[in-house]
Amino acid sequence: MAKEWATLGIDLYVEPTGPGLRRGLTDALREAVRGGRLAPGTRLPSSRALAADLGIARNTVADAYADLVAEGWLTARQGSGTRVAERAPAAPAGRPAPRPRPAAGPAYDLTPGSPDLAAFPRAEWLRAARRALTAAPHDALGYGDPRGRIELRTALAGYLARARGVRADPGRIVVCSGFSHGLSLLGTVLRRRGVRAVSVESYGLDVHWNLLAAAGLRTDPLAFDGLGTRVDALSGVRALLVTPGHQFPMGVPLHPDRRAALVDWARRTGGLVLEDDYDGEFRYDRQPVGALQGLDPERVVYLGTASKSLAPGLRLGWMVLPEALVAEVAEAKGVTGGVLDQLTLAEFLDSGAYDRQVRAARLRYRRRRDQLVAALAERAPSVRATGIAAGLHAVLELPPGTEPSVVRAAAWQGLAVHGLSRFRHERSAAPVRDALVVGYGTPPDHAWTGTLDALCRALP
Fold first, then answer.
1. pLDDT at residue 98, rounded to an integer
2. DSSP 3-state assignment of 84?
3. pLDDT score of 19
4. DSSP 275-294
5. Confidence band (pLDDT; 50, 70, 90) for 10?
6. In Å, how far are 163, 292, 388 from 253, measured between CA atoms?
């Protein structure tokens, strides 16, 4: 009997009040619906299951349900059970009910930082998930290692060594929930070690600077020129956050001499370089630039994610750490979820599906970049695209003083796009430049032509 009672149906918390069980149950259910605790469409337990849960007669529950169906609070249909009725919200007295309004938003989107989400390989990902779950040992569903599942760390070590030149060992990899999570963990560890400031690039993402600030770290911007971030001014700091492969958003790779100088600085001073390899898979007109971490794994932390190659919503990232940092970062992280997605990504990597996805995306984004450059040459010849040899965005250089008006014109065209000033550190000494940062990877394929037309109409 205990087993039968335990498997009768879904759970519902309700506490009958007032005189009489039927009236008390009816009043409690009505109030739960009226107050919004039971949302429209919510399925209720069968009368048999709820009666068993409450220890009352089944007919009492059935009668209470019938009363509320008659009043319009519930609906009962053969085969779909009893549900909370769909009800329009009551309008204030003397005022008509407001008409629902569609959410406001741009018609076109060129903001950088996201791939074409419509191109996510759903079928391949589902197949990988099924294979991974079928093969997963029972202990994979437990709390596990704070560093992440060994299957994913092993797969990442092989892939990163092969594709990005990272010197990776599974024991030194910590899986995290995206780049921001990893940076937050590193900020916490650095602060505990007595670090007070982190040097950053003159242009970047304020969300990253804010994460470091939240960890108690000051961010000091470095100068920038045609060879990338200048590292000759590094003095009195112990850590640096940099995008050496493809500076965001300027799109310039860090010059080889400066890469060597940066590693020399870290070795000489005991400093730590945080390498953000945010779009390392996407190279078009030049040979791939290997990860800086390969020059010195004990002085460089490599951070990567699946946000550009797959989708940011997966919240999957990784850090390849110096040996001395692994235990501290793992302790700061603790045990977090996402085990099934970790196992799926491991299978995705091992099966070759990840490589296929990256190659297909690389071709698609290169076509878009070429179409963007061709459209500018034809319809806005005074605007030059830079930083286009790699990545998912381009910098469109504008005539001096025109950035604000072009951003406004884009908004009038229903186009979301950011000016370069949005990415400039507030304490940067770099000269102010007028430009747009165009994320050509963001629009879905069906919207790309319309998005490109809207951009060209907004340009001078």
1. 55
2. strand
3. 73
4. EE-TTTT-B-SSPPPPPGGG
5. confident
6. 17, 11, 11
